[in-house]
Amino acid sequence: MSGWLSLSEARERNGLRVVLMRGFPSPWSQAAKAILHVKGIPYLACAPGEGDEPGALPDWTGQNSYPAAMYEDEAPRSGWAEILLLAERLAPDPPLIPKDPARRALCFGIAHEICGEMGLGWCRRLCAIHAGYCADPPDPMARWLGDKYGYRPDAHAVAEQRVVEVLGLLSDSLRANGGAYLLGELSALDLYWATFCNLISPLPPEQLPLPEAMRSMFTAIEPAVCDALTPELEALRDRVYERHLVLPVEL
Known about the structure:
Blueprint (H helix, E strand, L loop, with lengths): L3 E2 L1 H5 L4 E4 L7 H13 L4 E3 L9 H6 L6 E4 L8 H11 L10 H15 L4 H15 L5 H10 L5 H22 L11 H9 L15 H7 L4 H6 L2 H14 L7
Parallel strand pairs: 1-3, 2-3
Antiparallel strand pairs: 2-4
């Protein structure tokens, strides 16, 4: 990553530009950064800034979410799988996607359970929205996010159960592949898990500086979720950050 540019500045540049959520540990943005870091791919980080017109993000990227990868004059990429595939193309080594088709399908399937709609990240966000709705008075941000991400009054129980199921899936995969990495050797799955784990059990303050209110929002308190988050999964998160990523986390 090289500095921060506004969207209007980044549009004038060539190469890889990545629109990121700045100042907030969004796991989708952090995962994109992690992939590019492990592969050693240079990029320009950008975020809405002074001089950007209202609507600059959808005007450039065609959507309103983060991250979005803009490479040369190619079409925008905002999905987690699209960004991973672009990174794999730009820097095939070290590979983060298995070459064997069956293991590749397994990798993408589990990655969807972490990053995709109704996956771990999505469902943890619904749980946080639910908590905001239940506050007195309700959190206006929760209402805005609820409208955007399809919150319903019955969403909390469904989302909590899905988080528990995904944590069980990850525990089984880790155990079945020797306990070091989710597929036996470092893959995109480990980077996704390390960054998305912070929605359940954030890294300590010296490694992930967060306002206390935000840390509380990110920390799971549901007994079933806490039980499903095994010491082995937390140890994997720590191992990935210590061996492969940057600490403290850059926001």
